[in-house]
Amino acid sequence: MSVEYSQNPLVYRGSREFDPEIPEILPHEKVYSIQVGYKLFRLSGASLSSDAPSYFTQFFNKEENTEEILFIDRNPNIFEKIYNHLQGYRISVDTAIEFVHIWSDSYYFGLKRLQEQLSNEDIFAIIGGESFKISKNLLVQSGNYPNYFSINYDSMLTDNLRLIEQKNIIRPPPQQPATVNNRSAKLFGDLIQILKGNTLVIKNDEHRKLLIKECKYYRFLALEQKIIKYKIHNCPYTDAQEIIIDLFDLSSKGIFKQTFPRQESPVLYARPYIKDIKRSLIFQINNSENFNPELKLLINRTEGICILRLVGDYRSKFLQIFRNMSKDFMDEPQMSSEMLILSGLKSSKAVINGLTMKQDWWFSILDTPRSDTLGSASPVENLGEPKSKMRKLDLNSNNDLLSVDNLEKYFKGQEENTSKPEIIEITIIKGLWRVLTRGQHARLHLVSLEGCTNSSTFLRDRIDFL
């Protein structure tokens, strides 16, 4: 028995125009008997010839078999649908298990017209014990294909059908639809709704995170980018657009560097796998949930230097996304558990220890006595201009950017005749940064910060009544 299989079963194909003419492979008026399991089916030669050549026409075309009853040891309930198909009805498939059984038998019996109809059917899957019927159009959208289901169907429909053809086995091998028992049926149903355009099913940020995990599992890459939380900021004065997105939601595929050797330029970002435009990037660090007290903004009061210290997953993710932007972002994982990145503060907003800082707040910290630091009880509004007019490194000018190789001396005091400088440490709760590049150099620039200088302040702001 000869069978054929689809090399790309999930590619959507519109139905060809139906040809009502039936070739006379068997005498149209003659009636043939087929016993399937416990049930006898009687079909005309016209019905059997309507989807031919097939296993049935090959059997009854032999002279010695014209009056025989063809016995097939298969499920008569499944054959009932095939019987209706041969009689000219367009059959409907109700469940994932039924689809796999009919599909398997259509290849086993060599019914090419039924195979084509099934290849244009919806996709069936069992997720978390619940059967789903999914429009094929949803699963072949750009950016979401190939996915878990296309890979599963390729394996199920290609490997098993090759086995039928090559081994000439007496019955098809047992098969099952795409089945995922360890995932949530409710979350998968929500993904299908979002694929249809219904984003109102996203309830809150926690629900959004769960949906993103499901997208990663099923490899719905474009859908993931649509679910990720982001903001588009429009400047009415310049018509420029900025996108604000969490560091852990960034993809290196969406990063674009502008090359201007004499001018600092922001790194651009376009969400990958979807048709998105390039916008200036502002990335967010959110340390409020899985709080890491070592994630800090370090301000050297005497040198006028500000450094962002990244540790743990924050460091790893930053390197994954921005390593190729500049040699200043190069960091060998085996050398250190932290990463130090030069950061500008001009025009940034800050809330520290629950207090809103005044404009150019960071200037007030430089060269001031220790009693006037951010951790004191002094009203923040009374902080004045720096008491010293000593020239400091302007992180926002076009001066040469500081090399990462020279940062150690500001924090470890390892340079000869240099004492360890006075450092103010602000633990980051939330922060927004731009990435600025010029030529081969790069740095960060703070946009907004929420931080604290001690654990008691952090806990005080988060302990509340039930």
Walk me through this protein's architecture.
This protein is α+β, with helices and mostly antiparallel strands and 466 residues long. The protein folds into three domains: 31-125 and 150-177, Potassium Channel Kv1.1, Chain A (2-Layer Sandwich); 183-227, no CATH class; 230-466, no CATH class. It has 13 helices and 19 strands. The protein has a five-stranded mixed beta barrel. It has a three-stranded mixed sheet with strand order 2-1-3. A hairpin with a 2-residue loop joins strand 1 (31-36) and strand 2. Helix 4 packs antiparallel against helix 5, helix 8 crosses helix 9 and helix 9 (205-218) packs antiparallel against helix 10. It is elongated, with a radius of gyration of 33 Å. The N and C termini lie far apart (71 Å). Residues 1-9, 11-18 and 368-418 have low confidence and may be disordered.
Helicity, as a percent range: 25-40%
Number of domains: 3
Query: What would you call the shape?
Result: elongated
Q: What is the distance, rounded to the nearest whole angstrom, between the alpha carbons of the first and last residues? A: 71 Å
The total strand number stands at: 19
Please give the radius of gyration in angstroms.
33 Å
Low-confidence stretches: 1-9, 11-18, 368-418
Topology:
Layout lengths: L30 E6 L2 E6 H5 L5 H6 L8 E4 L3 H11 L9 H13 L3 H8 L3 E5 L2 E5 L1 H4 L8 H20 L10 E3 L4 H11 L9 H14 L2 H7 L2 E5 L6 E6 L8 E2 L8 E2 L1 E2 L9 E8 L9 E5 L4 E7 H11 L15 E7 L4 E4 L2 E2 L51 H5 L10 E16 L2 E12 L2 H6 L6
Parallel strand pairs: 1-3, 4-6, 8-12, 15-19, 16-19
Antiparallel strand pairs: 1-2, 4-5, 7-8, 9-11, 10-18, 11-12, 12-18, 13-14, 13-18, 14-15, 16-17, 18-19
Helix pairs in contact: 3-4, 4-5, 8-9, 9-10
